Amino acid sequence: MEYLHAIANCFRATAPVADYWSLRLVSEETEHLAVRQGVTEPSALGSSLGAMLTLVQGGGIGYGATSDLSPAGLAAAWARAARWAERHARLGLFGADRYPRSSLRADYASPVVEPWESLSLVDKLDLLHDACAALEIDPRIVDSSAWLGRRLVRQLLVTSDGGEIRHLSDQVSSGLMAVANAGSQTQTRTGGGADWGGQGGLERLAQVGFRADAQRVAEEALALLAAPECPAGTRDLLLMPSQMILQIHESIGHPLELDRILGDERNYAGTSFVTLDMFGTYRYGSELLNVTFDPRVPGELASAAADDEGTPAERQYLIRDGILERPLGGRLSQARAGLPGVANARASAWDRPPIDRMANLNLEPGSDRLPDLIARVERGVLMDTNRSWSIDDSRNKFQFGCELGRLIEDGELKGLVRNPGYRGISARFWRSLAGVGDPQSLEVRGVYTCGKGEPNQSIQVGHASPPALFRAVEVFGGGE
Amino acid sequence: MKDAAFFDLCERLCQELRGEEVLFCNLAGEDSDFVRLNGNRIRQAGGISAWGLSLDLMAAQRQVQANCDLSGDRDADLARARSLLQRLRERLPHVPEDPYLNYSTTATESFRIQGSGNGLGEGLMSRGKGLGGEDKSGTGELLGVRTESRVQDDPGVRKASRVQDESGPRRGSVGGAAPSGDWDSAGVIAELTQAAAGLDLVGIWASGELSAGLASSLGHRHWHASRSFNLDFSCYLAGDKAVKANLSGQAWDPQALAARLAGVRRELEILARPARVIPPGRYRAWLAPAAVAELLELLAWGGFGLKDHRTAQTPLLRLARGERPFDPRISLHEEHGRGLVPGFTAEGFVKPQSVTLIAAGRYQDCLVDSRSAREYGQVVNAAGEAPESLALEPGELPVTEMARQLDTGLAIGNLWYLNYADRNDCRITGMTRFATFWVENGEPVAPVEAMRFDDSLYHLWGDRLEGLTRERELIVSPETYEGRSSASALLPGMLVSGIDLTL
To answer: Where are the beta strands (DSSP E) in A4-132?
Structure first.
């Protein structure tokens, strides 16, 4: 971080006069290790360093991003930003006075118990070989993988108003995958933290059951080969947290992004069935639906002290007792829409400007234990772990698929079913929410690759959810 | 960063190698302007300069990889690269031998610069009413009919590739300002917002230089650079009713923009009619090339790689095993020779001009990267195992006949957000998006509300395929996740007797 400070201090001392500027310096270190079918894949180190300069000047806004952090490099980025600010002043969608200024001074660092460096490269590879071998329990396992990753991001945001926000995000990721095949039927099962991202150190491996999960992953992949197809028809649907995070992401998170509602994303990610006049009155779901934007959950993927516009991050209800309260919009979007929002203007890297993202978007727990939710189902399907996602550009008509299904009959779990899927319409689906798991069943997970924006940005977002029960959903299985 | 600076950096780095160490250096860079538009105004505008260096160090049958950003400053970059090399050297003894280590030991060279503004870049256009004037009625345009542009790389030109547009003579018929390879982004934006006055235009202008280089301690020297633009936009009528359009290439042509906007305005008039709500069911349909592109983009996810085939994960498993054929009119190739993406792999292999993936409805060859080649004893024919330059062979149907051939059914201009409903049966789900019309007696009569489909390619490209168009469209990817993409696809439209809509 000292290196970033030195660059920032040098820039501050020489920056030309402007109405406002912010400089976001980002250093990102990554490491990826993997073993596939018993063979070590080439280990990969990544080291990224660059700066995003946002300039408000002459009634316009422009940005310049560069990996040249010398005084000359930053001066060139300034000149580029100034040219675009001049053009924006004449052709901008909104006035530059709407751009949020920040004088916030804040620090954030991920909670880490066991640093990534506390385990040697050799030991990490041994762990991966051991886990991968544990997946290969049968000749029908035709592919197996175990992986570990680390992402360390140091970010310093300084502004012409004296703002200075330091973020250190440390993440360890892991995963297991077993692919089973018999004839023309192939089934894949993942686990070991594959969809369980979070901030922290190597202590996360035990939390997500990295090594211990291997046997279950392999056995379920094999069992699915022989399982019947998920039946088609209208049934109750019990979604486990590993699928709920996707359901929340696609049919609550994206429709509530304020920049979508304002039309910025219509050419790419799409628009929203939610309109500005719905906030405060619209019934989004049943009274059991409570959704929060919560950047302060320890270890959740997008926890932070502030967003990339320099707005302090605070917990807010977006949906309370089923009623829509506020959108996912940063201060710039809030100013454009005339609505309160949250601190969610985030950029995926140093070479992208901030836009409205989800950050941590969580379904608040209810009061039902998982066995109680199962007991309330007369004829239904439990679905676990997302594998397919598709939703329309207004975020309404969706169809999702899961790795594993299990029938529920007369309040009891029955046998596995394969290729389970379901479809519905967001605006109706959440109103069929009939049960939400208790705090003990809550799982803090996340999505690694949420894509949107032009230019495109893929970013990590956190989602926490318990299992949830929905009534009368259209479900189906595989086959032509 | 220019080629000389990159090669100089690599030579200095290679001088520091020890013993049997082998080093491959790859560069990927861009100097781009990005302008987001909403409401035909600038939403967000700026530019980036970014160069990424990847190093692959090998010795004693082991390999380790790393990458870092470069600044463009010669000394600073060398220091950064040296530091990275040292880290790799320290890691190398701690990784096991790699049985699939595979790199080219034959030093090869290539040099290609496109769109340099020196007169050789004639301009590559896509989705081009600006190129194709044969459909005078405008009906074909409503059905997503475009014209084919073929990009050819003249192997005799070492210092700059020749980009040729087969339908080039049509472009000049409009008159006015000539296409220019020396555009100015700010000027184009001013021109665009003026030309699109009155339209609710939203989208992205992305333009500038893209560079890719390879140098190795074994003597490989490859360079691929281009200067191009991609204007990807849509114009909204209301709600989710919009017309999608794209203009991309290496020479900016104001007349092509004017023609494209005129086409958009015509389609918006049809979109203004009351929308037709249709119930789920099976419908006769025409899929425009942009919709076909979405099918292929999904299929590219695991469909053609050798590793995916050998581990039974490809959605084309039944096709590959001969259990379920496609229609004999389906022939698909990966056309590396199109020249928009580099013709070399990171490991120094030179790609073949073309790989036939599907021939007359039967699976033929896989894409084979360096690791799979070593593992399965095959020849490297791709940089990665996902295609970047697909070409679906054309059929016999003239685009001008499509409306009559469809008669009554759906004209689907675009599909959106596709995913596998069941990979085992190549069953795909997704949405219609942008301009999709209900056609009766060969005439588009109303827009259709966005609908979800869920169907198997074994039907759409099999027993329900009625024909492919004689003309094809070159679609250049507007994606910018890992920098500006240079992937493309050359595709016809297709007529199917039925597609299953489910929601």
So the answer is: 20-36, 39-40, 43-57, 60-66, 105-109
Q: Report residue B125 as tokens.
A: 């256009």
Domains of chain A in sequence order: 2-226 (3.30.2290.10), 233-476 (no CATH)
CB of A328 within 8 A of CB of A318?
Answer: yes
Q: Write out pLDDT tens, residues B178-196.
A: 667 678 999 999 999 999 9
What's the rounded Cα separation, in Å, for the pair A410 and A445? 31
In the stretch 139-198 of chain A, residues with CB closer than 8 A to chain B read: 142-143, 179, 181, 184-186, 188
Residues of B in contact with A419 (CB under 8 A): 422, 424
Please report the residues numbered 405 through 434 in chain B whose beta carbons come closer than 8 angstroms to any beta carbon of chain A: 416-425, 427, 429-431, 433
- Measured distance CA(B256)–CA(B261) in Å, rounded: 9
Which residue among B52, B73, B236 places its CB closest to the CB of A68? B73
Q: Which of B43, B100, B419 sits opposite A388 (nearest CB)?
A: B419
Cβ atoms of A327 and A318 within 8 Å: the answer is yes
Size of interface A-B (CB pairs under 8 A): 258
- Return d(Cα B354, Cα B263) in angstroms, integer: 34
**Coil, helix or strand for B340?**
coil
Bridge partners of A144, per DSSP, are A178
ipTM for the whole complex: 0.96
H-run or E-run covering B51: strand B41-59
User: What part of B 3-42 touches A (C-beta under 8 Å)?
Assistant: 32-36, 38-39, 41-42
Sort residue A18 into left (φ over 0), alpha (ψ -120 to 50) or beta.
beta
Taking CA–CA distances from A37, the nearest residue in chain B reads B311
Residues 6+ apart with CB under 8 A from A72: none
pLDDT in tens, A138-158: 999 999 999 999 999 999 999
